[in-house]
Amino acid sequence: MDASTTIKQMLAGNKIFVPTYQRAYSWDTETDMNKAPKQVNVFLSDLEDYIKSSTRSKYYFGHFLFEKKPDGTFGVIDGQQRLTTIVIFLSALFSRLKSIRKLTDEEDFAFKSIIKISSTYHFETVDYDSQLFKDYVINQTKKDNNGLDTESQKRIVRAFDYFSSKLTQKEETELLRLLNAVQEATCTTHPVENESEAIQMFIFQNNRGEKPSNSEIIKAQFMFNVHLYGGDEKDDLINEIKNRFEKIYKSISSIEYRIDEDDVLVYTMRIYFNSLWESNAIEKINKRLSEDNPIPFVKEFTQALATSFGHLSAFFGKDEQTNIEIHSLITLGGFTIAIPFIIKAYTFGLPISEICKLCSALESLVLRDRLIGTRAVIIARINDVYQKFTLTNKDITPIIEHIKWLKIQSNEKGQ
After folding, report:
1. Is the pLDDT of residue 328 over 80?
2. In angstroms, rounded to a whole number, what is the distance separating the alpha carbons of residues 112 and 16?
3. Contact at 8 Å (CB) between 157 and 136?
4. For residues 281 and 301, what is the distance between their CA atoms, to the nearest angstrom?
5. What is the Cα gyration radius of the chain?
6. Within 13 A of 291's CA, how many CA atoms are on the CB side?
7. pLDDT tens digits for 259-297?
8. Could you tell me if 301 and 289 are in contact, meaning their C-beta atoms sit under 8 angstroms apart?
9. What is the DSSP letter of 232?
10. Which among 170, 119, 146, 289 has a CA at the least distance from the CA of 221?
11. Which of 133, 205, 296, 365 has a CA 20 to 30 Å removed from the CA of 32?
């Protein structure tokens, strides 16, 4: 790959993939035109504005960072959301052209160079979304929206459907101008063969530009610290972190419409450090990484984070569907103070009947917090019993009794 290139040259003949330890497709589409546009909408409107303008300069798609693998493939480290959207758009655009007429030799060559030739795909998203991406976006053999297992799959489908709908309204001349604008759009690339360098560059770039999620930053910092201090364990630890974040991102894809991934990071901190007062994840974790031998912390916290996401997947999934107490708490909303208790209960192996009792008690606590709006007071009064809720002392009775006491105190004060 050349440092300064075009989208067509970057994709042509290369095989680019999103590593499984990277988060899946996160750009969304707004279908209600009365609401503010989202990333996919802006992607298209910016292109439309560009081809309507009189500028002679090429469209610019920004910088892409890749890790070059020994087999000659490229893993996207930074820029995967833009690149995924570009491929979705181009596939929809080629499909629209094919519906009007047969592709010219030049257009057919472009399609085979940057989208697919025979069974070779030039771009692949994370493996758990990959088949849907191929079937719905590239090959268009899947025509329905059934069986979409992750939020990222739903986003992929919404983006492709949105582009397809908008492109159907355009004449051939405008379609060709859009195709040329994207193919010839300039970009810069930086492929590196050293994974440590790639991670370091990701951290450097995203400390100075539009930030990714805190969990993505933490993942990169953990991997970089393992590269620095992992010693003989380095390769095994890197693989462990990648595997845990693969599990984390799969969990995110199934529950992110219910809870924010960075909130889960904070909840995990409150469990790991056993305090409801923990709030600044980046600052706290960076402090621990700056101490001597950060490797044990990296291993423990990564496992704790994966555990939190795993338990919340069950909580917001099958357990909510079969337990009214859980459903009632989730429906109430505003459950920030409750989630650390919930994750602890799952981690300690409490039976679902006990977790339901805990949810019922926590529902009254959440409702009190929402009505009175004195969260700092609530945390101060509940933190002590939270800290005593441990693996060796996992009886939920004191928690329920303490919540009842809080309700009595509120009533006596007329709150």
Report:
1. yes
2. 14
3. yes
4. 12
5. 25
6. 9
7. 888 999 999 999 999 999 999 998 999 999 998 899 999
8. no
9. G
10. 289
11. 133
Q: What is the pLDDT of residue 27?
A: 93
Q: Six-digit token pair at 142?
A: 């899947």
**Are residues 185 and 59 in contact, defined by beta-carbon separation less than 8 angstroms?**
yes
Q: Are strands 74-78 and 60-68 parallel, antiparallel or unpaired?
A: antiparallel
User: Which tens digits make up the pLDDT trace of 8-33?
Assistant: 999 998 999 998 878 889 999 998 88
Q: Return the structure tokens found at 141.
A: 């053999």
**Contact between residue 33 and residue 45 where contact means Cβ atoms under 8 Å apart:** no
pLDDT of residue 407: 63
Structure tokens at 130: 């990959």
What single DSSP character describes residue 102? P
Provide the 10 A C-beta neighbour count for residue 128. 17
Q: How far apart are CA 104 and CA 112, in angstroms?
A: 12
Tokens 């926590």 appear where?
362
CB 166 within 8 A of CB 178: no
Read off the tokens for 108: 């057919």
Residue 163 has pLDDT above 60, yes or no: yes
For residue 306, which of 356, 272, 258 has the smallest C-alpha distance?
Answer: 272
Nearest to 149 by CA among 251, 246, 242: 251
| Euclidean distance between CA atoms 6 and 185, whole angstroms | 5
pTM value is 0.76
Question: What per-residue confidence (pLDDT) applies to 414?
Answer: 47
Residues 6 or more apart in contact with residue 98 via CB below 8 angstroms: none
Report the C-alpha gap between 320 and 210 in whole angstroms: 35
Give the E-state strand segments of 306-376 in sequence order.
none
Contacts of 245 (CB under 8 A, 6+ apart): 21, 219, 302, 306
- Report which secondary-structure segment, H or E, holds 188: strand 186-192
Residue 374 confidence (pLDDT): 58
pLDDT in tens, 85-99: 999 999 999 999 999
Grade residue 206 by pLDDT with cuts at 50, 70 and 90: low
User: Between the CA of residue 144 and those of 32, 314, 353, 375, what are the distances in Å?
Assistant: 21, 27, 39, 45
Mean pLDDT of 122-141: 94
Tokens 């990959």 locate to 130
| Calpha distance 309→306 (Å, rounded) | 5
